[in-house]
Amino acid sequence: MATDRYQSPLAERYASREMQYIFSPDKKFRTWRRLWIALAETEQELGLPITDEQIEEMKAHQDDINYEVAQAREREVRHDVMSHVYAYGVQCPKAKGIIHLGATSCYVGDNTDLILMREALQLVRRKLVNVMNELAKFAEQYKGQPTLGFTHFQPAQPTTVGKRATLWLMDLKSDYDDLTYVIDSLCMLGSKGTTGTQASFLELFDGDHAKCREADRRIAGKMGFDKCYPVSGQTYSRKVDSRVLNVLAGIAQSAHKFSNDIRLLQHLKEIEEPFEKSQIGSSAMAYKRNPMRSERIASLANYVMADAMNPMMTASTQWFERTLDDSANKRISVPEAFLAVDGILDLYLNVVDGIVVYPKVIEKRLMSELPFMATENIMMDAVKAGGDRQELHEKIRTLSMEAGYQVKHEGKENNLLELIAADPAFNLTLEELQAAMDPAKYTGRAEQQTEEFLDEVIHPILEEHAEDLGMTAEIHV
Fold this sequence. Notes:
This protein has 477 residues and is mostly helical. It has helices at 9-14, 17-22, 25-45, 52-60, 67-77, 80-91, 105-141, 161-185, 199-204, 209-222, 239-267, 292-307, 309-316, 327-353, 359-373, 375-384, 389-410, 416-421, 430-435, 446-464, and strands spanning 146-147, 150-151, 154-155, 159-160, 271-272, 356-357.
């Protein structure tokens, strides 16, 4: 590791090697050469005088890129694409004259960006469905575990641990839908030329418009795409980058929400993220178990959500058929959004895979609040036993205030049941009241909703991606 210059933490600490390679120079320049081969093959197939020998020579040097030649040439001409055209020509003297024939720089630059973004989105989707799979297992395991529900982070009606997990899953399912839509709608730029008119290709094909259209179709097919964008300037619309980063920002939002909930639950000592035997939570307080993974998710998520503004501004300020003020921003904002989301999903998977639940703590907190929540049921039972509903309502209100005072001001246990049992107007014994304190009676359809959601919504997605499941996440720090 170089210690005398800045290194991106996204590469050093967070993103996987797989995602880093997708946006590496080697991957980019190999893709450029694949595109030049696809262009030459297409032009040959459509009647241009390009020989099999020239194409075979290009294929022979597809991956052994002479970087030192390209770098030296770029220092002279200040143009990255033409430097690599030159370097490829040095290795392929027979094909030198037809490499990049009719194309502009964006033929390799923009088509490569689209290819790499689609590949990166597919990796994001694989990781996303693995997180969904682990969350589904968690939701299934704890679908019937009653827990105190919160609104405004104030005690509310009970839910179940598994049902709460379905809320996290539902967010990811929305992200999955958006992700799949964007992956399926990505197209190639194709061979559109300097201002998107295909004028150079129309000249090459002697005015044959059909061949210009067919060239786009064939290049797309050779690179694994169904089609090209029907119209463009020199570049594909930078709204594409914005759409892609909006999807990544959506995943960041979902992960951030999950990480917030885990951090709050860890404060309550109900649920904790994994904590390794030798892990240090605090440099000063040795007893602490800080939710460092969840905090890191939140931190990276903030970055991705902010980064989504970059392609928005770029897309909105492009001039006519193209300007180059997108280049430096695009080189940073798009890859780094992917690297950050990659790190987020690895952390998310790691947390869910090793999450720790403390049912006794969950039960204790729920039972301390349940008497307040059960008052309506208690009142109905008392009315059935002959009581007056209006009178009982006022009595329960008064007794609830008294029990609340005991808890908040005197630090004592909730004694609402004892207060109700002592009031003859209710005609209920303490034993009868305690028998009504079964938490499962107050969770509504939480367990059934969890089962239905998993069976009808999540499991079909997981079955569709069964071959992608089983990933594990390596956390570097």
